[in-house]
Amino acid sequence: MTLANHWFTEQDERTGTALSLRLGAHVHGEQTPYQRIDIYETDTFGHLMTIDGCTMLSTRDNFLYHEMMSHPVLNVHPCPKRVAIIGGGDCGTLNEVLKHGEVESAIQIEIDERVTRLAERYFPELCARNDDPRAEFFFGDGIQWMKDAAPGSLDVVIIDSTDPVGPAEGLFGKQFYIDVLRALGEGGLMVQQSESPLLHLDLIRDMHAAMREAGFAQTHLLHFPQPIYPSGWWSATMACTRAATLEERLDARAIAALETRYYNASTHRAAFALPGYVREVLDAI
Asked: Is 202 a catalytic residue?
């Protein structure tokens, strides 16, 4: 990360890329026991949250990520009643999950409570459903929480984590996926953010391989635009406990009632349509 002439720049030396946003004020900064969190005002993207110098979310474009991390998996599962979100401290994914009336309980497991408290202050729109009686918050280690989860106690697990470094590194391994699989009930689904299909295809391949080695019957990649993340193109990986169709179960009226800005029946189907070079890599696993 560099700050010069009122610009925030996140540089990725490994991929030789960078993202820049013109800044206004630096409105908050703190070092928590886990990471450095900063909040900036920007000229065109509203508030920007960074963690350890990496962009996490902005007011302008976060809906793309949060909608695609939640609605496709919930729309594929036949009856998603019990949902766990690992990470997701900004509450944006939780907010989208709770738009589904069939969800009876949704617990957010976030290691750093300060992410949530700062989201409540600077991104209040993402926290609009935090008082929903179906919502529960646990501030602690998501890896240990999943180890302790009762077998078959969940329908959907959403892993809304940072990059696979630091506190999030253990969320990308085979043992963690084994624990998730055990906690899922019959027909359960897991979805995890899986970085850029353009810049991080090796990671995506390794994630799919590890999920299948852990015992998941199928894995599927879905992709969507995300301007403030490296390459501007992002993905999530869905893992199924048994063979599943990826077709949306909700009708057009039910999807419209979710009041989404990006997600709809067409973007649901398009998200699972893979470019040839991506499909070639995943088919070879």
From this structure: no
